[in-house]
């Protein structure tokens, strides 16, 4: 069991406090489970109050015992009823407040209204953009975990190469691969911040099922088992001479790496092979371009330029329904900042972790490559190592 | 691929419209993916407007193609930018509105603020309690699917009996079981309405790991792989003479059944065997009590009474941290209404589907039973069929 070290929590909290002070915000009330984990090292059900100045207070509903074991914070108390929060904070010398920050991008309205009553003379503002921008840049501690996660995903792609076979359903292959992930400590799902967004281990589809688009905000969709879960693997049988795209992330100690490879039993149609080489060329181009200070939009534009100059422009990043990004931050959530998309002026910074996923979608399949990279002073460093050719079985 | 039939959607929509009319609400804007699926038969990214009177309008961002294939509704249009929603509704003859309903229990504040601007002269109220109370009572169509889901879970419990073995980790067993679920079309996760609540296939723990409580709102917790996912299976090895509790739901065509059985390689300690028989007695008592018109609180109280009269009162429903319910509605979400808990005055109705899960938690393990039942005129009918004794291997 890895416990987030105290120095790491302190660094994260100090970074947020610097922003709070600069913005004139008295404190942040962190409630979303992933953010609580980021700042407190525990995911137990809790409110974490981070004052602009002073020690944070972790108020735990359940499990208090466990939060006390897992969190290196000093002030951890049991709070059964959130209504007593104001009195508790007062006992720590915090409040009344002029301005408090909440995670308004994820907090449901009904819950917000309750907090609004509790802190009725306080102005409530959204601190999620600040939190997300802090989480965007990973520390050496986080990069260490992400590296381990990448090592585990390398094993998984090896497992797929050994276990993929003709005539089984996508769901059957997915089940086998997911069991291999689970045994290695995968939490069994991805966390996403976006409302209504959900994902298990990732996308695994073959041939024509790769052309089915979906509600999931990515270039590929997939039919899924049924319309109640309209994405990823379905009952289609895996056949010969068609692409099997596996876009699986590993989630280890909370941290995600995202990766895509193309498998094929037999031989791929020529247009897919050619489109794959364009995707690969885009990846290589982005690797040379992506240095600290370069804007995300520049990466997207140069990717689009290569795609448009090829024979497959209209198949880039989805067909017929296209998404307008080629990459995204990953960390504790799959949809972290920055988004590598048109118009995004965020400059790259050292320590950002990005999944870059140029893909081309056709009626008879999809191809592409995805790796997770860390931005270093010298450019992108690949974290997700595995054979970067089409993997023929 | 099962498509929700038009008559079923029409029935659901009419039920909501009856409430809207009675409450003087002009219409409901449905956005949460599960509710959209319930009323429109598709889970594509969309806004579903249901007027108090007239035909609904499904406004789809992505995938429009797929929503058109999956939904039996008449008015399905592509809407790229939600800002155009007001004009679109006007073109169908809807608006301006005095009062509109949104799902404020799940809608994030930032998104709500955008809708508030769009409909600036409209009062926005929460219609989730109405939607949840409609979804609480299942139709014959829904019961048909739930029955299929129960049949698949029966196969899964048989699979566990055949595949459980000493010396493998909980995660390894979980992976194998989950692969068996996935091959049968399990969507790979449970949907929960509660903020911050998440669950994969369910809980699978053994011996002392059953005593670890967690953020998940249930009687059992489990260590999980690490503090970033502090529930269910972990790296503990499954041993002899200890309980292995498997609380796995099957999610088929969106519909959940919830079930728990106790497996044991060897022989269980006497106190666990005796506590199991109390749990079973509670289940049987509830089966005779639970008739239409009986309040949920009555079921909880009588369960508590039996537990308190036994030698294991303080171990009932969690130890040392206890939850205050013994059952809950299931359907498209795991935390549906009603909750079978102290003080809940909701009377049972024919067609409600309830998971009842009396459990006892000790330092060296936990035991109990859970089945999913439908409320009929004659009382509870068990849907989740499998050996109801402790299953010795």
UniProtKB/TrEMBL annotation, chains A, B:
GO terms for molecular function: aminopeptidase activity; metalloexopeptidase activity. The lineage of its organism: Bacteria, Bacillati, Bacillota, Clostridia, Eubacteriales. It comes from Pelotomaculum isophthalicicum JI. It holds the Pfam family Peptidase_M24. Coiled coil: none annotated. It comes from the Bacteria. InterPro entries: Creatin/AminoP/Spt16_N, Creatinase/aminopeptidase-like, Creatinase_N, Pept_M24, Pept_M24_MAP, Peptidase_M24B. Residues 12-137 form the Creatinase N-terminal domain. Transmembrane segments: none annotated. This is Xaa-Pro peptidase family protein. Residues 146-377 form the Peptidase M24 domain.
């Amino acid at each position: 069991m890895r416990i987030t070290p105290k120095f790491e929590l302190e660094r994260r909290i100090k970074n947020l406090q610097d922003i709070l002070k600069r913005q004139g915000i008295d404190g942040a009330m962190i409630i979303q489970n992933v953010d609580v984990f980021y700042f407190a090292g525990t995911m137990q059900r809790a409110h974490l109050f981070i004052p602009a100045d002073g020690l944070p207070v972790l108020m735990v509903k359940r499990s208090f015992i466990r939060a006390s074991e897992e969190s290196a914070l000093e002030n951890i108390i049991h709070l059964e009823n959130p209504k007593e929060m104001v009195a508790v904070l007062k006992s720590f010398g915090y409040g009344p407040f002029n301005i408090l920050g909440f995670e308004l991008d994820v907090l449901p309205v009904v819950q917000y209204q309750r907090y609004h009553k509790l802190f009725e003379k306080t102005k409530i503002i959204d601190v999620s953009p600040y939190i997300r921008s802090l989480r965007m840049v990973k520390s050496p501690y986080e990069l260490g975990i992400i590296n381990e996660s990448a090592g585990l995903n390398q094993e998984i792609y090896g497992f797929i190469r050994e276990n993929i076979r003709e005539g089984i359903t996508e769901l059957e292959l997915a089940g086998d691969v997911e069991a291999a992930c689970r045994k290695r400590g995968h939490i069994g799902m991805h966390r996403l911040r976006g409302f209504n967004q959900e994902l298990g281990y990732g996308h695994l589809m073959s041939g024509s099922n790769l052309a089915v688009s979906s509600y999931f905000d990515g270039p590929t969709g997939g039919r899924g088992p049924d319309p109640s879960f309209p994405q990823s693997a379905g009952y289609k049988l895996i056949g010969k001479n068609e692409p099997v795209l596996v876009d699986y992330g590993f989630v280890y100690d909370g941290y995600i790496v995202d990766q895509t490879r193309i498998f094929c039993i037999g031989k791929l149609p020529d247009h897919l092979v050619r489109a794959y080489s364009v995707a690969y060329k885009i990846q290589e181009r982005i690797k040379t371009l992506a240095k600290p200070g370069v804007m995300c939009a520049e990466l997207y534009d140069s990717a689009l330029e290569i795609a448009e100059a090829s024979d497959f422009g209209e198949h880039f990043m989805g067909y017929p329904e296209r998404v307008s990004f080629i990459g995204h931050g990953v960390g504790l959530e799959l949809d972290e900042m920055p988004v590598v998309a048109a118009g995004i002026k965020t400059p790259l910074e050292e320590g950002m972790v990005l999944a870059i996923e140029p893909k081309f979608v056709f009626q008879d399949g999809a191809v592409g490559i995805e790796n997770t990279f860390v931005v270093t002073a010298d450019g992108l460093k690949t974290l997700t190592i595995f054979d970067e050719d089409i993997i023929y079985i």
